[in-house]
Design brief:
The complex is a heterodimer.
Chain A lengths: L6 H17 L1 H11 L4 H14 L1 H5 L3 H16 L1 H17 L8 H19 L9 H16 L4 H18 L23 H20 L1
Chain B lengths: L10 H12 L3 E4 L4 E4 L7 E8 L16 E7 L5 H11 L5 E6 L2 H16 L4 E6 L20 H13 L4 H13 L1 E7 L19 E4 L10 E4 L3 H18 L8 E8 L5 H17 L3 E8 L9 E8 L2 H8 L10
Parallel strand pairs in B: 3-4, 3-5, 5-6, 10-11
Antiparallel strand pairs in B: 1-2, 2-4, 7-8, 7-12, 8-9, 10-12
Classes of the chains: A mainly alpha, B alpha/beta.
GO molecular function, one term (chain B): phosphoenolpyruvate-glycerone phosphotransferase activity
GO biological process, one term (chain B): glycerol catabolic process
Keywords (chain B): ATP-binding, Kinase, Nucleotide-binding, Transferase
């Protein structure tokens, strides 16, 4: 049997994400200053910071309740569009986890797919628009392909992580379709999208965490 | 900036406080931007809302026969899902809730998110999107057409249908029908100032107007020289009528509801003059005006200008339009 993430494990992962984001304040803020409002790091850091703070109360919940609470917390703490998009992602993922006690290989692909679908439909956005979708979308596509080809778990973790990181890196060449960068003459071309970068952190850490557990 | 306010950051809550004092039939959920009917009944709830600055929209349309709750965000920005969730709670009479959303990216995201949250708590929620502005296809704040003054007719139709005891799918169907036959088009003559910003968001020259400008001052179709009322009526109506034609909706020989809406700083005198010209032109086109509404229904703070809205009517829409409404900004 492959990996099985419990709700306690998931909060361990969330804490690692918070650490990584918190340590990268300058890098993310600099990326954002080039193309956006400059508030992405502060928003996302406050969201994961709050989850880190209340992790003890969340780790004893069922996965369904936990994801729901994470979604609501992200929505109210992060605020604005990012808050709603992350909130939507976690609420959609919660539905996938209803009645489940652990997240295995298949469930994880289902969770990431639900998150991607929720972000795309709520934000009315497509891959290639220089957003967080550009890291999550290739990761999900890669995951689905791996499952279809019966790729070994260990290898899946490596490939999905790489797809997310490559996806974020590819935003450098993309033109922004939404947001402040669209008003710039170069439409942000040449700059990484900070939302895609913080998304790639989350997928990278999730894959590394699962590897460290198995 | 000359405005009758206290602190710019308090304008929305203080406005709703004052509004509730002026209307004993409603209550104000303090800190949450929600105005709702005090009287609850077992029927489908109808909720609308959006950024503030469009008064009397949306709180002025709360009343028996129209909205059950209105949710206000900050000036020109969508309320967050928690506020909308409160509006849904206040409007919920156990038969489900319909959200009337104007098509702006922020409103869409926040209202549908609130709908998801409510569904997780086992409240049946559905929504309609109003996109009546024929001026531009995509805009600064929207993918697709914007929702403007025609939204008020959607409030009326959905509210009357709900009051008649219809189910959520039936209320939604009536609102969708109104939306299908709804077209609006506006023009601006001067800018407006968001209290927290303190200065106008754009400028128009002394003798200049912008045709098709949005209700947040976002760009329209063209800047032109100021014109006489008769000519303005033709420019706006031609655009609306062309759009009906492009959608394959026959207008000649039909009856419409007409709204001549002021954007905030245009005197009623001018709106009535415009109304005369609009009706003369509609008569020329063989379109009969069944019922006329002239006034400030969907404003943009103190912007000067107007919008015209037509809703083609059938028997059902006429009956729903004529049904009683106790909403202070739309009494029938």
């Amino acid at each position: 049997m492959g990996f099985q993430l419990t709700s306690k494990d998931y909060m361990e992962y969330i804490k690692l994400v918070y650490k990584k984001i918190h340590e990268n304040r300058e890098y993310i803020t600099d990326l954002d200053a080039a193309t956006g409002d400059g508030d992405h790091w502060a928003n996302i850091d406050s969201g994961f910071g709050k989850l880190n703070e209340i992790s003890e109360s969340l780790e004893c919940l069922s996965l369904f309740e936990q994801f729901k609470q994470i979604g609501k917390t992200m929505m109210s703490v992060i605020g604005g569009s990012s808050g709603v998009l992350y909130g939507s992602a976690y609420l959609a993922a919660a539905k996938v986890l209803k009645g489940k006690e652990a997240i295995g290989n298949e469930e994880l692909c289902g969770v990431l797919t639900a998150m991607l679908d929720a972000i795309m439909s709520r934000g009315n956005a497509q891959p290639g628009w220089k957003t967080m979708i550009d890291s999550l979308h290739p990761a999900v596509e890669c995951y689905k392909a791996c499952l279809a080809e019966n790729v070994p778990e260990e290898e899946i973790l490596t490939r999905v992580k790489q797809a997310a990181l490559d996806g974020a890196e590819n935003t450098r060449g993309m033109e922004a379709v939404r947001g402040r960068a669209t008003y710039q003459a170069d439409k942000g071309v040449g700059h990484l999208d900070p939302g895609a970068v913080t998304m790639s952190y989350q997928i990278e850490i999730l894959m590394d965490y699962i590897r460290s557990k198995s | 900036m000359k405005k009758i306010i206290n602190k710019p950051e308090d304008v929305v809550e203080e406005m709703l406080h004052g509004l509730a004092l002026a209307n004993p039939a409603v209550k104000h959920s303090k800190g949450l931007g929600v105005i709702s009917r005090k009287e609850k009944s077992e029927k489908v709830g109808v909720v609308s809302g959006g950024g503030s600055g469009h008064e009397p929209a949306h709180a002025g349309y709360v009343g028996k026969g129209m909205l059950d709750a209105a949710v206000a965000g900050n000036v020109f920005s969508s309320p967050d899902p928690e506020r909308i969730r409160e509006g849904i709670d206040q409007a919920n009479g156990g038969k489900g809730v319909l959200l009337v959303i104007k098509n702006y990216s922020g409103d869409y995201m926040n209202f549908t998110m609130a709908a998801d949250l409510a569904e997780m708590d086992d409240i049946e929620v559905d929504y309609v999107m109003v996109k009546d502005d024929v001026a531009v296809e995509d805009s600064t704040y929207s993918t697709g057409r914007r929702g403007i003054a025609g939204t008020v007719f959607v409030h009326k139709i959905a509210g009357a249908k709900a009051e008649a005891g219809a189910s959520l799918p039936e209320v939604k169907a009536a609102a969708e029908k109104a939306i299908k036959y709804l077209r609006s088009m506006g023009m601006s003559m001067s800018a407006c100032t968001i209290p927290a910003v303190g200065k106008p968001g754009f400028t128009l020259n002394e003798n200049e107007i912008e045709v098709g400008m949005g209700i947040h001052g976002e760009p329209g179709i063209s800047k032109e020289e100021m014109k006489e009322s008769g000519e303005i009526a033709k420019i706006l109506l031609d655009k609306i009528l062309d759009d009906y034609e492009a959608s394959g909706i026959e207008m000649k020989g039909t009856e419409v509801a007409l709204m001549v809406n002021g954007l905030g700083a245009t005197p009623l005198m001018e709106l009535y003059i415009l109304n005369g010209d609009v009706q003369a032109y509609l008569e020329e086109k063989g379109i009969k005006v069944y019922r006329t509404f002239v006034g400030n229904y969907m404003t943009a703070l103190e912007m000067a200008g107007c919008s015209l809205t037509l809703m083609r009517l059938d028997d059902e829409l006429k009956e729903l339009l004529d049904a009683p409404s106790e909403a202070p900004a739309f009494r029938i």
